[in-house]
Write a structure and sequence with these properties.
The complex is a heterodimer of chains A (about 450) and B (about 290). Chain A is α/β, with parallel strands linked by helices and about 450 residues long. In chain A, about 35% of the residues lie in helices and about 20% in strands. In chain B, a hairpin with a 2-residue loop joins strand 1 and strand 2. Classes of the chains: A alpha/beta (about 450), B mainly alpha (about 290).
Chain lengths: ~450, ~290
């Protein structure tokens, strides 16, 4: 009887786990989307609102490089509905007021059909109402937090932080990690990470020790690492400043695991941690650049990265010799997904394209990032199945990664358990969806004053 | 307070002190606060990154090349700042001129090093563990070199004939000219000297930290804050101001968290301005 119960329980969990991995992809646009319809337009503009100058110029420039590559490829294949894509960028220098003003300028320009940016959750949340009011499709390649189900015209092409945390903690649990702390910038993203880690750590059998806040002006993270010196793992910030945490871990001879998000592909981290950076775990959407056997690369990813390297080159770390391409395929996915959706809708009408974009399901081997694009009602281009856990390694030839196996059944269990501890007033992603409270009460997702909350 | 915070604060404080000193050197004969000074810091980090880091050239050769380029940058910067100031009748011309120079150099560095974080191999790659805290050889070298330069410059101002000429020019340039002091050459020398020391500060800092090529203005602000706390025009003030900024940043950050660090520094700045408007070591004569 007990065995039967266990088997049934396991089957239920397995079914649940597989339910979060969608079935066969429905769309197959190929590496370069082509449309046979005629829009009657000669040219459309896709806007990029990003820091093109200043401390974070690397973000805007990388986004522009990738968007230009895919736009050129689409243009050569006839454009979208016969219209050639023009990429137009507005520089915000990472100044919030300028970012919102630029977003408004794009929102009110009828020739602009889609906008990428502004980056950073808080900036986007300030700009989003303008996009919604003007019915402007927008796709965000550098907005980790926030709920995109709140927006009709907004989509996210970045790994969702909760998916990163679940995937990483599942792997760490397998490695026997019992305790971990986080070193992260003070701010909205750090708060979201902290809150979710506090919620789920116990579900993975771990103690979350807490959050050591840093700022961009800090000259060392030695003190922060020292506070977690006995922890089994430390989650460090993906921002380039997080490299100081890797450096501090090396300086203090930290024995545990250093882990983090997709930003750990930045060569600054390898320079900071030196050879000790080997063994660091990174949660990220598909990133095959360090995989030496290029025949294993996703075809779409390979085509995109090869084009980036040919046109713009690579970044090389001065100390550790790690490299990365000078582009960000996640931004290219925005242009790619928009083109596929517009071709599918055979229109540039924002409502029709947004509806088509929500229902996209493009297999990973065709997209520029090598990730399956299937936004669904959450409007996240990538779902939990797109998150990989990579372990950075180094040998005489250089840096490479080893992919770790994540326990999807365990993740599904935790996600379900978190849902079951939902409280009235919690944010939710789809009208009508239900969640269970700890007391077993069923809460329903309802729109209240424009926001989706459980009631 | 942890020993680690003390070490980190001493390192950053000594570098901020050096940057404050470079601002002081240009300020004395010109009465101009050069907002482009931080760009010389970026030059030092960039040359180290390019030569020592990427091309694996010995750091002594890198240092020599950096010094030559810093002299050139100092000469260019003197023209970029002093020419508009001399040609314009406005007493605010220096603000626009120095900010413009800062933005021009920032753009050049950003274009050349987009996506790069400027860092390179330390001069000595060794870290000591003292009382559980880490102190790297690079940090020790940076602290010793910075403090030595500040002390030597202080003695130069007081004991050498050129130092006296510099002080005379700072006090009254017209009288200094009448007395035969070559003030124009002193101004050029001040720009060149401050560029060299600014670049040296970047060269010492980058192996231990990461320098963003567009972040020169941030180092100017840290140096400026240190100079104001210590007393503008005083090398000793630059030293103590730098140490106060560095230690407060580090210790407040360790005790109260990262956000508190910046607040603590500016509270200290506010208090100093209220209680001792000329700064801790500033005298009205130095400040002139």
């Amino acid at each position: 009887m007990r065995k039967t119960r266990f088997a049934v329980g396991s089957l239920a969990v397995a079914a649940l786990a597989f339910s979060i991995i969608p079935a066969q992809a429905a769309d197959s646009p190929g590496l370069v989307p082509k449309g046979t319809w005629s829009s009657g337009l000669k040219e459309i503009t896709i806007g990029l609102e990003a820091p093109m100058t200043g401390v974070f110029a690397v973000l805007g420039v990388s986004q522009k490089n990738s968007m230009t590559i895919i736009a050129d490829q689409i243009n050569k294949a006839g454009g979208i509905g016969g219209a050639q894509i023009k990429i137009r960028e507005l520089d915000d220098g990472l100044a919030p007021a300028k970012a919102v003003a630029n977003a408004k300028e794009f929102a009110t320009d009828d020739t602009v059909k889609m906008v990428v940016g502004p980056s950073i959750t808080a900036y986007y949340q300030a700009a989003a109402p303008s996009y919604e009011a003007a019915k402007k499709i927008n796709c965000q390649a550098a907005v980790a937090a926030g709920n995109f189900a709140d927006y009709k015209y907004g989509f996210r092409s970045q790994d969702y932080y909760k998916d990163d945390i679940n995937a990483m903690l599942a792997v760490l649990q397998d490695k026997g990690v019992k305790s971990f702390g986080m070193i992260y910038e003070a701010g909205a993203t750090g708060t979201d990470f902290h809150t979710y880690m506090t919620t789920v750590a116990q579900q993975y059998g771990m103690v979350y020790i807490g959050w050591q806040q840093i700022t961009s002006t800090a000259t060392s993270h030695n003190d922060q690492v020292a506070k977690f010196i006995d922890a089994d793992a430390i989650w460090i910030s993906s921002n380039a400043y997080g490299a100081l945490s890797a450096k501090a871990a090396k300086a203090l001879n930290y024995k545990g695991l250093v882990v983090g998000g997709s930003g750990l592909q930045n060569v600054a981290f390898h320079d900071a941690g030196g050879p000790d950076f080997a063994g660091t775990y990174m949660a990220a959407p598909n990133y095959q650049w360090p995989v030496r056997d290029k025949s294993k690369w996703m075809p779409g990813y390979k085509a995109h990265v090869d084009a980036i390297v040919a046109a713009y080159g690579i970044n090389t770390g001065a100390i550790a010799g790690a490299t990365s391409p000078k582009g960000t395929a996640l931004a290219a996915d925005c242009v790619y997904a928009y083109a596929v959706a517009a071709n599918k809708a055979q229109s540039f009408d924002a409502d029709k394209v947004a509806a088509a974009m929500s229902t996209l399901d493009i297999p990973a081997d065709q997209t520029p990032s090598g990730n399956r694009i299937h936004p669904g009602p959450e409007h996240n281009l990538y779902q939990a199945d797109a998150i990989h856990i990579y372990k950075w390694m180094k040998d005489a030839t250089g840096w490479y990664t080893e992919e770790q196996v994540k326990d999807v059944v365990q993740i599904a269990k935790v996600v379900e358990a978190v849902k079951a501890s939902a409280k009235a007033g919690d944010a939710c992603s789809k009208v009508g969806a239900t969640a269970k409270s700890a007391a077993g009460k069923t809460l329903k997702c309802t729109k209240v004053k424009g926001k989706l909350v459980l009631k | 307070m942890s020993l680690q915070a003390l070490f980190d604060g001493l390192f950053s404080g000594s570098i901020y002190g050096l940057v404050a000193l470079t601002l002081t050197i240009t300020y004395q004969p010109t009465r101009i606060m050069n907002f482009a000074q931080g760009e010389t810091f970026i030059l030092g980090a960039a040359v180290g990154f390019e030569l020592v880091g990427v091309h694996k050239i010995p750091w002594l050769v890198g240092l020599a090349v950096m010094l030559v380029l810093a002299v050139v940058m100092g000469l260019i910067m003197e023209r970029m700042v002093m020419l508009p100031v001399q040609l314009s009748g406005s007493r605010f011309a220096w603000i626009i001129a120095t900010l413009a120079a800062a933005l021009i150099f920032q753009a050049i560095f950003s274009i050349r090093y987009v996506g790069d974080t400027l860092t390179f191999f330390p001069i000595v790659d060794k870290t000591f563990s003292i009382g559980g805290a880490a102190l790297s050889a690079q940090q020790i070298i940076a602290i010793v070199v910075s403090l030595t330069i500040i002390v030597v410059y202080d003695q130069f101002l007081r004991r050498s004939i050129y130092g006296r000429a510099m002080r005379a020019t700072a006090h009254n340039p017209d009288t200094a000219i009448i007395l035969g002091v070559p003030t124009k050459r002193l101004v050029v020398g001040a720009f060149v000297g401050s560029a060299v020391l600014g670049a040296l500060a970047g060269f010492l800092w980058a192996p231990e930290n990461f320098v963003n090529p567009a972040n020169g203005l941030a180092f100017t602000i840290s140096g400026f804050t240190a100079a104001v706390i210590g007393g503008v025009g005083s090398p000793r003030g630059a030293l103590f101001g730098g140490l106060i900024v560095g230690l407060l940043n580090s210790i407040a950050g360790a005790i109260f968290g990262g956000i508190a660090a910046g607040i603590a520094v500016f509270i200290a700045l506010g208090l100093i301005l209220i209680l001792k408007p000329a700064g801790l070591f500033g005298k009205p004569m130095d400040g002139h």
